[in-house]
Amino acid sequence: MQRETISKAVKGTWVLTIASLFSELLSAIYRIPLQNIVGDRGYFIYQQVYPIYGIFSVLALTGLPVVLSKSFAQQNDQAAKNKLLKISFVIMMAAAIGLIFVIWSSARYLAIFMGDPSLYHEIRTVSLAFILVPFEASLRGYFQSDLVMEPSAFSQVLEQLIRIIIIIGSAVLFGRGAINIYQMGALANSGAFIGGIFAVFILLFTFLKSENKFFIKTPEVNIELEHGLGLEIVLIILFTGITIFYQFIDSFSMLRLLMHNGMPLHQAEIMKGVFDRAQPLIQLGIVISLSFISTIMPQLKKTNQTDQNKPLIKRMVRVCLLLSIAETAGLVALMPDINMMLFTNTSGSVALAIYMCSIFLVSTINLLVAVTSGDSSKNLSKLVLFIASLVFKIVLNILLVPSMHITGSAIATVLSECVILFGIMFIYRSSLGFLVLSWDFVLKTAVAGLVMALMIRALEKFMLNFMELTRLSSVLINVILIPIGVVIFLFFAVEWKLLKKSEWEILPFGKHLVKLIKIED
């Protein structure tokens, strides 16, 4: 039975991971024609209200489904799950309607605060998507509680695909002069609502097709809820969407701070557009950790079951941390080439490379928060850490952005994330062996990533001796060096025995990989 649970958990993790990676890959790809057609200023106009969509995404795709899946998994029978589904849906619908009203009525003031009053149409358009949150979050959480990830995966991919078609269509209309830049932004952001409708259809169809007896009246049943669940929900939402909140701070502060020393508004908007190039890469990077969390959370049912699942959870944490370090190191090393390949120039590459450190930091933070989510005694401390990090980010932005521009904001974000990470490590200092495993593992993995990054960077410099960095050459460099980087990191991981055989097998095609590189326990 335990082996079946492990197999289902691993399969579910990678189903959701592959779907999320595909969705985020689409998200990264569409930004290429979008930025190429509308330019950095048009990209800024679209991206400036993106954090509002980001909040929707956290609520509908990650934060709420993750914590609801744990609550659904704690119920003793189907009737209790159905009752919890009804109650949670009604509460979320009431909250969604209230949120839409607040955003819609305050859109003009938010636009002025963001530095461009003409953005209010975009803000209102994207706010409509929140009406879909109760449907998406409750049904995804319901399916994920049974480690059934396929409905979440399929609906996520379809939602992103429809959204991207609308975004590219709006960019083409702008490029042909049919609409102005602000109409382009509003139309592009309507993709969140339209794509979400398709996702809801998939989820509802799957739910109604299953034999869950949802509409059959049942005797009164009791719902089991953990003490401190409300604060736990808040924490999971905040931390899984942590990058969005930093983006909010940048949206409301960066333009004014860039213009502090006399930079014209037009140039400041372009520079903010360059900085926003990092967002799809960051989101792509933390997909793996969020998928692992989606699988881990339903297994944190009760204390005794948590103890039984600790070996599996520990293995998943180790694999996830190793992958996030490898991702971060590779993106930092190849940032100029990735920047050129995706966005036609290398503007802001230093700032973007620094920003990529968020992948490892946010992935680690999310894992620690998820694994310790049931510890209600320390949840208030985590909330204080989160608030402190936002204040720290605001202060550092004020200090660094006027002089260091977007590089200052990248540094501010990374240091603010460190406040949370080191704070959580301090709070759980007596049980770090389980949370961050061993310092030996973390140190060796970090060194493997650093060596890989330095070797890739040296090879990139060598290749540029024979060619000029253009969009075509950057594609060639990435195609050659990314596989080499994977092999280098894999070599050190095997040589230093960073993962056990059972942990290697968690990876896609892990069993074949174990045989190929002859890994033994």
From TrEMBL:
Membrane topology field: Multi-pass membrane protein
Keywords in alphabetical order: Cell membrane, Membrane, Transmembrane, Transmembrane helix
InterPro entries, per database record: PG_synth_SpoVB, Poly_Biosynth_Transport, Polysacc_synth
PANTHER family tied to this protein: POLYSACCHARIDE BIOSYNTHESIS PROTEIN C-TERMINAL DOMAIN-CONTAINING PROTEIN, PST FAMILY PREDICTED COLANIC ACID TRANSPORTER
Official protein name in the record: Polysaccharide biosynthesis protein
Subcellular location: Cell membrane
Domain of life: Bacteria
